[in-house]
Specification:
There is one protein chain. This protein has 109 residues and is mainly β. The protein has one domain: OB fold (Dihydrolipoamide Acetyltransferase, E2P) (Beta Barrel). It is 9% helix and 51% strand. A 5-stranded mixed beta barrel has the order 1-3-4-6-5. A hairpin with a 5-residue loop joins strand 2 and strand 3. The C terminus is likely disordered.
Length: 109
């Protein structure tokens, strides 16, 4: 799926510990479209490299196209849905896609 709009805001980085004791981090960001309804989306990127590259290649106010997957996870009988961004491009035609790759699938982030 994809959404095109203005990168409104970066939210604070969230960090935690995995079951195996390793650390993780993710960062959410808001994109607002020109649609009349349902025009604000909160996406997230997960992993050290993706979080670092998000603000390295993107700035608030940029017009972007975000390609993402919808994911739902269960935790203690509660369900959480997230919009997981795997590619971000500036609308100007310059592919900034935060030059990383998804683990094992070879797709640019």
């Amino acid at each position: 799926m994809e959404v095109t709009g203005k990168l409104e805001k970066f939210l604070p980085i969230q960090k935690g510990t995995k079951k195996d004791g390793g650390e993780w981090q993710k960062q959410s960001f808001l994109v607002k479209t020109t649609e009349e309804y349902n025009n604000l989306y909160c996406f997230e990127v997960f992993g050290d490299e993706k979080v670092e590259n998000l603000t390295k290649y993107q700035k608030e106010g940029d017009q972007v196209k975000v390609v993402f997957n919808v994911q739902t996870n269960e935790w203690k009988d509660k369900y959480f849905t997230s919009l997981s961004a795997w590619r971000i491009e500036k609308i100007s035609g310059e592919t900034t896609a935060t030059e990383t790759e998804e683990e094992g699938d070879g797709l640019p982030f």
